[in-house]
């Protein structure tokens, strides 16, 4: 019973990170029509930036958070115009070209992390990020500050994003671009600008995901980037590419499934869960459980 | 001195994938006029509309709107300058409400609610369905929504691309009546249309396109009476 509860708590925390990851990934996919395979790589790069920022500022949490969020936003802001070059009539990105470009950027980030930081060794966080913060609870239920942080930030940011999408002028434009970029352009929507904002919002989510991952894992490594990329892509495909709500549901479910597999089957099997589920879903429902939005 | 045309296109050449889609097009539209572009499928009517709105970059020639060169500008910039387009097909954003569809029309933030109220007063059918998803509207209602969205920006020029496609005759008559009333209010209309008989009934002037070239031009009455036009375009649609 104790194992079950502990793994459910871990699963919800892990699922919360996946929610932010897949929501950022799907947002860029929907609005900019970019299969941003290197999006999870920017998350891990932001984790390294947090580590570097903290090492410069005497392990200051504020410095780590600022460095991660700034890096997430900056990297995505730089990438947006690169992807925009591969667009049809200046409004609709060529999905295949941008996927290849994103893959190349991901490889470049992995190379940078492998050689540019800490002599290529994984980086370990200290202080709050090492222990996940104060642990509290009862004999059965143990919670850390990192667990709560993951849940609160994930719920808060996802709710804010949906509020933005359905209650703001940018959100209205983003939904129009997601449905028909060419139609939006001739209705007067500044498509390129709307798409760039989606990258900036995606970058913010990447930075926050990096902070939560750092708090939950306590380390970052170059190989983590590919692993996170596989998970984000798997969640998105299982739900249906570009399905925001479906992505959230599957992210949470997969986080819990992985944590349970970790608790009862062992760590190696946990990483295989996403791929097994992906295989089964692709065989039974090729467009994902909720249907693709592309 | 003659007033400057609202739209003046001269020597326009457009290529599509190495093929010449429009060749030496000269077209004008004056304030309050309904100008119709006639021609068969593939004649270049929609390409011309797409080029005016900025979706195609011309190889040469100029497109002037109220004297300002607009060719090469991004579509949203051209719309903000005062050119609105009612595209072929439904043209609505199905997953968004009628109200959100209207608010997409290019209009400054401080005027938005005032313009929305005025448009909803003008089109009661949209007012009744303002919180309904646009995807649930009938074909005729969807076309009215797109015209209403175009009017949100109080445009100087409205481009209509094949408005009759898919509409029942009665709804088409109401739509064309709306176009006439818009012209009477001073809006300038350039309309690409295959239904030559109906279009020439409401237009002031027209151009006939064949394989990317203007082959006939004149007043709507002259074009209606031209036996070559009657034989090629009016026979089937009268």
Q: Can you walk me through this structure?
A:
The complex is a heterodimer of chains A (294) and B (238). Chain A has helices at residues 2-32, 39-56, 61-84, 95-116, 128-131, 145-167, 169-179, 181-186, 191-217, 222-239, 244-264, 267-284, and strands at 87-88, 92-93, 123-124, 135-137, 142-144, 219-220. Chain A has a two-stranded antiparallel sheet. Chain A has one domain (2-284): Orthogonal Bundle (ABC transporter involved in vitamin B12 uptake, BtuC). Chain A has 294 residues and is mainly alpha-helical. In chain A, helix 1 packs antiparallel against helix 9 (191-217), helix 1 packs antiparallel against helix 11 (244-264) and helix 10 crosses helix 11 (244-264). In chain A, a hairpin with a 3-residue loop joins strand 1 (87-88) and strand 2. In chain B, the strands form two sheets. Chain B has a six-stranded mixed beta sheet with strand order 6-7-8-3-9-10, with helices on both faces. Chain B has a four-stranded antiparallel beta sheet with strand order 2-1-4-5, with helices on one face. The model of chain B has no long low-confidence stretch (mean pLDDT 90). Chain B has helices at residues 45-52, 75-81, 98-103, 112-122, 124-128, 139-152, 169-184, 196-202, 220-225, 227-234, and strands spanning 7-16, 19-29, 34-38, 60-65, 68-69, 83-86, 157-161, 188-192, 205-210, 213-219. In chain B, helix 4 packs antiparallel against helix 6 (139-152). Chain B contains ten helices and ten strands. With 238 residues, chain B is an alpha/beta fold. The interface between A and B is medium-sized, with 21 and 25 residues.
């Amino acid at each position: 019973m104790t194992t079950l509860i502990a793994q459910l708590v871990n699963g919800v925390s892990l699922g919360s990170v996946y929610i932010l990851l897949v929501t950022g990934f799907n947002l860029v996919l929907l609005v900019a029509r970019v299969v941003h395979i290197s999006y999870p790589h920017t998350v891990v790069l932001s984790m390294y930036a947090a580590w570097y920022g903290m090492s410069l500022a005497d392990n200051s949490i504020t410095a780590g958070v600022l460095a991660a969020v700034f890096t997430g936003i900056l990297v995505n802001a730089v990438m947006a115009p690169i992807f925009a070059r591969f667009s049809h009539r200046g409004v609709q990105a060529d999905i295949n070209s941008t996927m290849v470009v994103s893959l190349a950027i991901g490889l470049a980030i992995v190379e940078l992390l492998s050689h540019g930081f800490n002599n290529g060794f994984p980086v370990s966080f200290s202080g709050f990020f090492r222990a996940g913060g104060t642990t509290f609870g009862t004999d059965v239920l143990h919670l850390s500050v990192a667990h709560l942080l993951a849940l609160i930030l994930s719920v808060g940011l996802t709710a804010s994003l949906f509020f933005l999408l359905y209650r703001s002028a940018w959100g209205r434009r983003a939904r129009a671009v997601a449905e028909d970029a060419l139609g939006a352009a001739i209705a007067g929507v500044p498509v390129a600008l709307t798409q760039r904002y989606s990258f900036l919002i995606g970058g913010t989510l990447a930075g926050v995901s990096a902070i939560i991952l750092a708090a939950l894992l306590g380390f970052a490594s170059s190989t983590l980037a590919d692993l996170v990329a596989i998970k984000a892509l798997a969640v998105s495909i299982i739900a249906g590419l570009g399905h925001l709500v479906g992505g959230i549901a599957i992210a949470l479910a997969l986080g819990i499934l992985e944590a349970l597999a970790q608790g009862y089957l062992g760590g190696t099997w946990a990483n295989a869960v996403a791929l097994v589920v992906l295989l089964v879903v692709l065989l039974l429902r090729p467009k994902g459980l909720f249907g693709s939005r592309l | 001195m003659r007033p400057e045309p609202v739209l003046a296109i001269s020597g326009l050449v457009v290529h599509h994938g190495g093929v010449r889609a429009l060749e030496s097009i000269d077209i004008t539209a004056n304030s309050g006029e309904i100008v119709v572009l006639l021609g068969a499928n593939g004649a270049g009517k929609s390409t011309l509309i797409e080029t005016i709105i900025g979706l195609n970059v011309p190889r040469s020639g100029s497109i002037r709107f109220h004297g300002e060169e607009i060719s090469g500008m991004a579509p949203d910039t051209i719309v903000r300058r005062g050119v609105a387009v009612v595209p072929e097909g439904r043209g609505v954003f199905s997953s968004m409400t009628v109200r959100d569809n209207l608010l997409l029309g290019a209009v400054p933030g401080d005027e938005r609610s005032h313009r929305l109220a005025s448009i909803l007063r003008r089109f009661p059918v949209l007012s009744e369905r303002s919180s309904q998803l646009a995807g649930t509207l009938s074909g005729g209602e969807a076309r009215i929504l797109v015209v209403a969205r175009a009017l949100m920006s109080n445009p100087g020029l409205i481009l209509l691309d094949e408005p009759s496609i898919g509409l029942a005759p009665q709804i088409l008559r109401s739509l064309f009546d709306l176009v006439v009333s818009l012209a009477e209010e001073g809006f300038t209309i350039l309309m690409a249309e295959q239904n030559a008989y109906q279009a020439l009934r409401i237009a002031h002037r027209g151009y006939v396109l064949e394989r990317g070239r203007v082959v006939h031009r004149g007043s709507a009455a002259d074009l209606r009476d031209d036996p070559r036009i009657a034989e090629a375009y009016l026979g089937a649609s009268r």
